[in-house]
Amino acid sequence: MELQPSLTVSQKLTLTPAMRQALRCLQLPIPELSELLQEEALSNPLLNAEPPEHTARETLSAPEIREDSIWRVGGQRDPEEDRTDHEPRVAQEQTFQEYLHKQLGQNRLIDSHLRALCDYLVGCLDSRGYLDCPIPQLAQELGCPLSDLEQALFAVQMLDPPGVGARNLSECLILQLAQGPYFNALTVAIARDGLDLLAAQDYKGLCKKLGAKRGEVDLACQAIRSLNPIPSRGFSSGAPLSLSIPDAAIRCEQGHIIIEVDHHALPKLSINQDYADMLHKSDDPAVQDYIKEQLGRARAMIGNLQGRYDTLTRLLAALTAAQPDYFLHGGDLKPLTMQQLAQGMGVSVSTVSRTVQNKSVLFNGLVVPLRSFFTAPARTDGQVSSQAVKQRIQRFIQAEDPTAPLSDDAVCAALSAAGINISRRTAAKYRTALGIPPASARKARS
After folding, report:
1. Which domain holds residue 390?
2. GO CC terms on record (predicted)?
């Protein structure tokens, strides 16, 4: 048997320190990024960092934040987001992503290649701890085999807290069920196919759909209600809400949309020319090497900050171009996904996800999270977003007669008159998500 030499070509992702830093600059909110820039300037004599011209507290002492309603079945949203038994027992100063990266670093079963992929996926998680970027597209972006990235996602989903790395609510709940004592066919079936019925408290419908007895369904629903739909809840975001400031402002003047990215909330970076000149004045090779290294780091950081501004500006321009009726006339948001916006910008969906993460804009006197501008269609023709339908439902109910509140069927009829056809069950789900009780509970008692 003759042995012949062969060449095998394989791809592996290597996130260099420079790449990691560029991703962090794009993703971090203003307070955290400001600290990072100042720390970098302190450690690098070639980098100057002038203090920000204003701070969060100076700009917005009590910002009004618009946020999407959290998922909660069988009840109203708690405005104070009450603490639950599922909150991780870690120091509040530790951010969610720091907690995940620390676990990955302590896992000796993960090699360097898989660790790089896991770290990248952790960076793609949204503020809830969900992965809202399609895995095949991320694999294509990274130039790595899809199977490798799927293996990395599995490793991330095995981290604490349970449910992290889920791609939707059903998967988040099933991941938690799989790691707890209530993992059985009935609970999985409800988490996968029965959340709409559970949100509407339609237990008879669940029994009929799943072919189970009422007692079994009640116990299974109780188990699912005990789960945590937001894995990141209980962790620090890295920036206190009271210090949160918008990254940009959007306003309208004479029928034109104007975007102003805030360049003054972050330190102004520049090269320390006195130290840079030493590169040509010193004959010491060690000094020259040191200055070259630090100069490269300084230029990279300045480039990363400018890249953040450029990407954010492009994203806001694409966003406002996609939603002109909303920004100019106060109309409803059209269905728009991050993937659609990414395609329009010619960038990856993970770039859009990182750009909108932890960021907000000032519009009409409100500080609005960027993620709230992305909404899925509420009907199959894709012309009306679920957020727009919720807004209409809220307006209908606010204008109702308190002595004769609108039933879910009446809300459906009102929406149908406006050209929006949804089922009564969907109307009930949206009403519940808005924290609005059923008509029987809203009726004014004489």
Report:
1. 386-442
2. DNA-directed RNA polymerase complex
Confidence of residue 305 (pLDDT cuts 50, 70, 90): very high
Is the pTM here over 0.70, yes or no? no
- Cis check for the bond before 161: say yes or no (omega within 30 of 0): yes
Supply the pLDDT for residue 343: 86
What are the tokens at 270? 């520049």
Share of the chain above pLDDT 90, in %: 7
**Last residue of some domain: 225, 244, 277?**
225
Say whether pLDDT at 91 is over 60.
no
Where residue 410 sits, what CATH number does that domain have? 1.10.10
pLDDT tens, position by position, 97-125: 888 888 888 777 677 788 888 888 888 88
Domain contains 263: no
The amino acid at residue 35 is E
Higher-scoring residue by pLDDT: 446, 355: 355
Question: Are 266 and 40 within 8 A, CB to CB?
Answer: no
> Is it the case that residue 337 has pLDDT exceeding 80?
yes
